[in-house]
Amino acid sequence: MEHPGLLYVAATLLPLASFLILLIWGGLRNFARRNKATSPALDGVYQILGGDAITRTPAYIATAAIAGAFVLCLTGFILHAQDEHTHGAQPAAHAHDHKHDHDAAHADGKWAAHFEWIRLGSRENDSRGALALDLGFKIDHLATIMFLMVTFIATLIHIFSIGYMSDELQEKVEDHHVHTAHGHLERRGRFGRFFMYLSLFCFSMLNLILADNLFQVFISWELVGICSYLLIGFYYERTSASNAANKAFITNRVGDAGFVVGLLIIWTYVGTFNFDEIFARLRSPLHDSHGAVPLGGAFVRANPGAAEPDGRILKLAVPKPGEEAGSEVVLFPVDATEGHFHGVGHGRKFLRSEVRLSPDLDLDGHGHIPYWLLTVAGLGIFLGCVGKSAQFPLQVWLPDAMEGPTPVSALIHAATMVAAGVYLVGRAFPMFTREALLVIAYTGAITLFVAATIAIVMTDIKKVLAYSTVSQLGYMMLALGVGGWAAGLFHLLTHAFFKALLFLGSGSVIYGCHHEQEMTKMGGLLKKMPITGLTMLAGVLAIAGTPLFTGWYSKDAILVAAYGFTSVHGEHMLLFLAPLVTAGITTFYMFRMWFLTFTGEPRDAHVYEHAHETPWLMTVPLILLAVCSIGVAWGWPVWDAEASAMEKHVHHAQHHAVYTEFGTIVDKDFHEGALPEESIRQAGQAGHTLVGLLALFSAGMGFLFAFAVYKLKTLDPAEAKEQFAGAHDFLAHKWYFDELYSAMLVRPALAVSGWCRDFDRVVIDGFANGFGRFWVWVSKWDGLFDNGVIDGLANLLATMAYGVAGWFRSLQTGFLRSYVLFLVLAAIGLFVLLKYLVSVAVAG
Amino acid sequence: MSPITLNHYLALGAVLFVCGVLCMATKRNAIGVLMGVELVLNGANVNFVAFAYYLRDAQGNSVFLVEGQVFALFVIVLAAAEAAVALAIVLNFYNNHLTVDVDTAEELKG
Question: Residues 29-68, chain B: which have Cβ within 8 Å of A?
Fold first, then answer.
């Protein structure tokens, strides 16, 4: 097959097709239903699209799509395993044949390809030549197995959901959790919508794994976020569900803000989002032009603005041995080859000493990024992962997310989406600085301990599992932070299987008990639900780290990595002790859950009476997942914790930067190193047996304790609760995180917005209103002036004219005789006047 | 018996004039008023003719030729025209008011 990578693209697009079909179908049907009264044509459309009946067809479409994707992924997996180019791509070999390998396996589009999606314009002096966003895929060993895991679990969960969501097939579903004025809420079933959301989620999740660049990951990141939001709020009439959906979404926004900051820094300085290109620019090639001196895939740190001894002025100068590392990280051209670099010095100390570059390579043109900014970029992207993977301090949303239907909890909030954060940290590993990695490790350590302690006191079966998920994700983060790259991602995979199993098991219990989730009302259910009980026991054993179960291999690997790290960096001892102790706590709370649910006397006769084993649609996925939870990580020999085939598979995908930072590169060309990091792996391997025994001891103690308290009843949990009332309250309130955030963020925000509102009301509105009132007042006076003075003057003139005219009018008596009289009198008057004037004139 | 002089004529004119004016001022009958007007006009005519006949300059030559007589003739003609118009008005007035009392003709008073 020429382009087997396209199998994965097809696998990704299948659920999208399913989503679109369901979206258009449902949308048209909804539109037709609402308007069918207006036209017979729409009524006809409505009947064609299925009418009032709610069918299982959407489930079949969605399940077929994801099952098809699984088949494609399986084919791809086999092809990938057979492909010699991808095989044996050990870090060192990979580096030697880097160019060749790149050409052969990636550039030809066999397992990786990308095309330009959006061009934002060109810019000068950039090795890429243009600002463009790509869409692309890159299939490596990690992606193949992630694809396989996601599609497999998603398929099983789709099948399980057909059974679990069967209530939604009714035309009238009564929601007992929502009270209205007329009793319980009644609504139409939302069977199709559920599977539509699932399909969209599957597409987004697969696209996230498929992506070969950070931006595509970000798009998928937001898509899975919105699916999570929609599915948590699936029963959106319930206040708790809609609140939980909002909480999840908003908490994730906090993380995504960090993600965006990281993206912007990378885009600005590195100029590309493509993973391989970012790493190629940030990390030096493995060897220099002689092939002897290892540059080692490290950050080359230099100081700007110093002169070289040979007189050549470089904008960047690498400090001499013994000096402090430079403040800038040199950015290499994307197409840099080893021929461009001349190393000087011996051993890996060289990394911190001197890099001389061949004259034809002008590093200055490719820029540099301040080391602290690179750390910030890493922490920003990690903050996104903290939100998505519910790590401390953003872990608060995941337990509330259990408001969603249980299959959703299994698929999104346990197996896949929440693990996306871990996956991204793994993918972006080479761009994290040591400081960032240390933060990651400590975040994981805090999370895994805090969540595990809370899980001890939870009584809701799903909440126990939710906190267990948070805790296990903490393990993965810790592993990545201490350099156990393969261990962390390995745990991601195994955890996905057994946690999906546990959640589906709890779903089966909840379904069998008619939507009862409180463990305090269960007990003795093993007799009623043997398949569920036994499969869940497999999951519990797996997560507890029982030897030969999947969890054992991965948790062991994590502890070994942590041990190796702490044995070199003694000051970080906590990073080993926390997961070790928590391993015991994990065993304790998981067995507590199992004992409370399945053994002992039934605590609620009513629930017990009506409990029943669930139909085959739900038990078959349970059995399949149980089998995977036991054996999916096996290798040969089975009893060797290091022999897991899955871990080896994941190991193939490991970037050489992991070795650079944390371990010995197994390469005879390498000089025996003197850096402490080289001994981490050796130390871990040396202490393997010890670590394994310690972990077993810790888990064993947890089990014995749980067995004693909840099975033998030698200790009364109620008594213990009373005795440690303070501690119990503290844990039951989830370390008061919600209260803390409420006091720290929510209430201040409310207070500030209250002030703003008051300011608006009093000052802004007051000013506006005062201004308005002032002008009303002015206008009133103006009106008075107009009416009084101006109009008065005009009226006065008119009145005067009127008066005068009236007086003259009275002369017009209408009597002819008086006119004559006037005439005569006037004539006489004139004559008298004339006489007088003439006499005056004569006299004068 | 003294000869008839200009002053005699002027006195006659004045008497006629005053009679006419009094007639106009006192009569309520429109025809009476018209008759008063005729008297006033003729009073004036007497004056025209008298002045034309009697006024002489220092050499004893007549100041006017026939201007006074011509004026008088004009006045007579105008009086006739005026009487015709006035009588027509009076007739119409009578048609509308069934009287010729000028005191009832007061529609245009102020």
Answer: 33
